[in-house]
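R.M. (postdoc): so does anyone remember the format we settled on? I'll just put the structure tokens first.
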């Protein structure tokens, strides 16, 4: 691969963070995914404009009791994926708190994107509207996209958006090195077997 980027997924519990990761990395979905304890991760390589880009994607537990564990994994992140549940307004209202938390560990210009998951549910069940998303985008300058881990709607598109942005940033910086995250990746190879499972 030409580049390696570290992406961290954060947000409240039960918004579908793990399901989004598995949909993107393994292209499958399970209704009965066990709540993440601590962290999990997957790899996927994308080909963007003749560049092979390896994404190392970390899924973090949403519960408060795991916060001290998960905080350590924010460091070195090239992008942050914030996730809210379209049927749960609190998960959306908590996003600023997640931004405050992550800002302690990553530079201010770290790329961030908000995914409003569970777009497959009926309009009656949705409480986060397009207006909410538009206002969020205007106030914070963070793109908000509706996704569905269940159907795959916009999941690849969201991660391709992130990857293209990171490539542009790397090109502007004039870098061709796979990045500092490579070192951390090597130390995690031993964890790979432990954490990886297939659907």
């Amino acid at each position: 691969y030409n580049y390696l980027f570290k992406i961290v997924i954060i947000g409240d519990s039960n918004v579908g963070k793990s399901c989004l990761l598995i949909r993107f990395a393994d292209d499958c979905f399970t209704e009965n995914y066990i709540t993440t304890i601590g962290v999990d991760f997957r790899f996927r390589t994308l080909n963007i404009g003749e560049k092979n880009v390896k994404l190392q994607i970390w899924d973090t537990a949403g519960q408060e009791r795991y916060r001290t564990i998960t905080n350590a994994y924010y460091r070195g992140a090239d992008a942050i994926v914030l996730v809210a549940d379209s049927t749960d307004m609190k998960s959306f209202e908590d996003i600023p708190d997640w931004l405050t938390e992550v800002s302690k560990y990553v530079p201010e210009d770290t790329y961030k994107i908000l995914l409003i998951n569970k777009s497959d549910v009926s309009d009656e069940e949705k409480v986060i509207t397009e207006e909410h998303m538009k206002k969020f985008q205007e106030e914070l300058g963070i793109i908000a996209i509706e996704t569905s881990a269940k159907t795959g709607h916009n999941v690849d598109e969201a991660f391709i958006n992130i990857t293209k942005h990171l490539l542009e940033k790397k090109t502007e910086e004039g870098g061709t090195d796979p990045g500092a995250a490579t070192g951390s990746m090597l130390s995690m190879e031993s964890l790979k077997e432990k954490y990886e499972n297939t659907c």
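R.M.: ...and that's the designed sequence above, right after the tokens. Also worth knowing: The chain has a mean pLDDT of 85. DSSP finds seven helices and six strands in the chain.
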